[in-house]
Amino acid sequence: MSAQGTDAYTDGNALAGPLREIFAVDMTAAVGRCVGCGLTGPVASLRVYDHAPGLVARCPGCDTVIMRLVRGPSAAWLDLRGSVGMRIPLPD
């Protein structure tokens, strides 16, 4: 039994619509918080390094890696472990 007292759940396919809605917006306007120093700011304010295969975005306050994005011919990998969370503005 789960922590909420019920075994009722759906699989991850239930996230398809909500995630498509979120990632169809300009993510540079999303506001995140750094796990290193707690600085909060938009993705557009991150320092992006593109000298490797992929992009590495670092906090402008403490240089913690916030995001890694690597794109291949048939897939992309997004690592956000340097961010406590992100607030993503959605259109009306």
Outline:
This protein has one helix at residues 16-22; strands spanning 31-34, 40-42, 47-52, 54-58, 65-71, 76-79, 83-87. With 92 residues, the chain is mostly beta strands.
Total number of domains:
1
Which percent band covers the strand fraction? 35-45%
The backbone outline, from C-alpha atoms, is globular
Number of helices: 1
How do the strands line up in the largest sheet?
A: 3-4-5-6
The low-pLDDT segments are: none
Q: Find the structural class using helix and strand composition.
A: mainly beta
The run of helices and strands is HEEEEEEE
State the helical fraction. under 10%
Radius of gyration: 16 Å
**Assembly status:** single chain
**DSSP, total strands:** 7
Pfam families: DUF6510 (PF20120)
Write up what this structure looks like:
InterPro entries: DUF6510. With about 90 residues, the protein is mainly beta. The chain has one domain. It is built from 1 helix and 7 strands; from the N terminus they run αβββββββ. It has one helix at about 15-20, and strands spanning about 30-35, 40, 45-50, 55-60, 65-70, 75-80, 85. The strands form 2 sheets. It has a 4-stranded antiparallel sheet with strand order 3-4-5-6, with no helix packed on it. Strands 2-1-7 form a 3-stranded antiparallel sheet, with no helix packed on it. It is globular. The termini are far apart. The model has no long low-confidence stretch (mean pLDDT about 90).
